[in-house]
Amino acid sequence: MQIWRGAGVRDAIGRSLGPDAIVVGRPGRPSPSWLAALPFGPDQFFLGGPSGPRGGEDLTELLALLLSALPQTAHRIYHYDPTWSAEVEQAFMGAGFQDFVHRYTMWRPLPAPSSPDPARLTFEALRQDNESAFIAAYTSCLVGCLSPMSREDADDPSAALRFQMQQDHGPGGRQWLLARTASGDAAGIALLDRYGPQLSDWVVTFVGTTETYRGRGYGRELLSSAAARATRAGARTLYLAVCQTNTPAVSLYRRLGFRTRETYRVFRKAHPTAFVTDA
Fold first, then answer.
1. Which SS3 state, helix, strand or coil, does residue 90 take?
2. 32 prior amide bond cis, ω within 30
């Protein structure tokens, strides 16, 4: 078994997975003889591979080597392949991770629902002079939140929001939107990212309504506005992720035309500087 990083990944599996990818496997052997950890932040990784027939490789050895190669700052591991769920669970929980939460990836084709009535909500982008308003709105969105991932952020919402602001999730950039009522009150916020090979897909990384304005239909309007913006930018598909236990959010997304694409698990290890928001 070997460990490849960065440019060496191409030698391992014959493809580029980015300069910070970590791959473990046997030299000179094709898939499924490898596992990859694909970072999307300083402390979060997607677990990629292996493929092929179950039992064809020593997955236990591959997982152990990958765990040894992960940085000590690794806080969350996202695992999408249900074929290997038992082996992955045993390895990561044995290494001190928790089976933190199960989530849905949901999607809907665009064009989107109609844009919100501008007399009801207006939207402004994040700027240096309104950052404090964004932080205050985000803090309010997290009050009583049902998502375990967002409840973590409630311990220090300012740091959590700034962590998200600093992330670069792709060449398309990201958009923070602050929704205000006609009277100027903050009703909610949304975070959008472009992704995909042609930037033709967009993802809602976070959406939430402030405590005062919950239950009034503003969540629907926030998502409709996000979809309308993505449509105007040429997007064909809108994605979001949601914890399976957050049934009110799941129900809202389904009423808006979102459908479940896949389920996945998040393994978590306590780390004092990790902050992740949740749609």
1. helix
2. yes
pLDDT at position 119, please? 59
Q: Is residue 274 part of a domain?
A: no
Counting runs of H as helices and runs of E as strands, what totals does the chain give?
A: 8, 12
Alpha-carbon gap, residue 22 to 38, rounded angstroms: 7
* pTM of structure: 0.79
Same domain, 53 and 116: no
State the DSSP string of 215-260: TTTHHHHHHHHHHHHHHHTT-SEEEEEEETT-HHHHHHHHHTT-EE
* Measured CA angle at 122 (ends 158, 114), to 5 deg: 115
> Is 270 a member of any domain?
no
Both tokens assigned to 33: 């003889």
Render pLDDT for 122-146 as a digit per residue (tens, 0 to 9).
888 888 888 889 889 988 988 877 7
User: What is the C-alpha separation between 131 and 124, in angstroms, rounded?
Assistant: 11
Show the domain range for 235.
108-264
Q: How far apart are CA 182 and CA 63, in angstroms?
A: 54
Helices 59-69, 85-94: crossing angle, 10 deg rounding: 40
Q: Hey, what are 56's tokens?
A: 């064809």
- For the chain, the C-alpha Rg in angstroms (whole number) is 20
Point out the domain boundary residue: 96, 123, 141: 96
